[in-house]
Amino acid sequence: MRRAIIGMVAIGALLSLFSGLAIAQSNKTTGSLQLTEGTAAAGTGFSWSKGTLTYQGKKYPVKVDGLSVGEAGVDHATALGKITNLKSLDDFDGNYVAAGGGATVAKGTSVAALKNQNGVKIAVKSATKGASLKLAADGIKLSVVK
Questions:
Q1: pLDDT recorded at residue 9
Q2: 61 within 8 A of 145, measured Cβ to Cβ
Q3: What pLDDT sits at residue 47?
Q4: How many CA atoms lie within 13 A of 118 on its CB side?
Q5: Burial of 38 (0-12, 13-18, 19+ CB in 10 A)
Q6: What count of Cα atoms within 13 Å lies in the side-chain half-sphere of residue 50?
Q7: Are the CB atoms for 79 and 124 separated by under 8 Å?
Q8: Residue 94, pLDDT score
Q9: What is the pTM of this model?
Q10: Are 32 and 81 in contact (CB under 8 A)?
Q11: Quick check: 78 and 36 in contact, CB under 8 A?
């Protein structure tokens, strides 16, 4: 009985994750986010401090707080995100929380669906094999550097 309950909870979590990703990907892509620079943190892998937002054909530097790759010994980390529901550059800034969860998929690639207070959604995929994205307890804060 206990195994059945645990199994149902796990299946529910996966369905929630994939429905969140489907929602994030079902809308028209309005921008993209690339995170390629990280700093090594002893025992915790990489912690990002910046990235690049591409919106309406222009590139903007982005400050990132609260996102890391949770594996030590990773020598390079990259994450890419498809952005939906971004109506203006000002809507991008904010605190993003998991919208449907996150998961590690084939070969350690991680995916996460994020959403901020302005309704902007980002479907993020890490391109680092053998590592998984880790969100801070309160999500991540993204802001365009002005």
A1: 42
A2: yes
A3: 67
A4: 18
A5: buried
A6: 8
A7: yes
A8: 95
A9: 0.68
A10: yes
A11: yes
Element (H, E) at 15: helix 2-26
* Bridge partners, 122 (sequence order): 83, 114
Instruction: Please give the Cα distance from 12 to 23 (Å, whole number).
Output: 16
User: Using alpha carbons only, how large is the chain's radius of gyration in Å?
Assistant: 15
The distance between the two most distant Cα atoms of the chain, rounded to a whole number of Å, is: 56
Q: Over the chain (146 residues), what is each successive 10-residue block's mean pLDDT?
A: 48 47 63 77 62 95 79 65 95 87 54 90 76 67 91
Cα–Cα distance for residue pair 51/92, rounded to 1 Å: 13
Distance CA 130, CA 42 (A): 17
Question: What does the alpha-carbon distance between residue 6 and residue 8 come to, in Å, rounded to a whole number?
Answer: 5
Residue 39 vs residues 50, 97, 105, 133, 134: alpha-carbon distances, Å: 10, 22, 24, 14, 15
pLDDT of residue 127: 66
Q: Quick one: pLDDT at residue 98?
A: 81
Is the torsion defined by CA of 97, 116, 119, 28 positive or negative? negative
Domain boundaries defined on the chain: 2-144
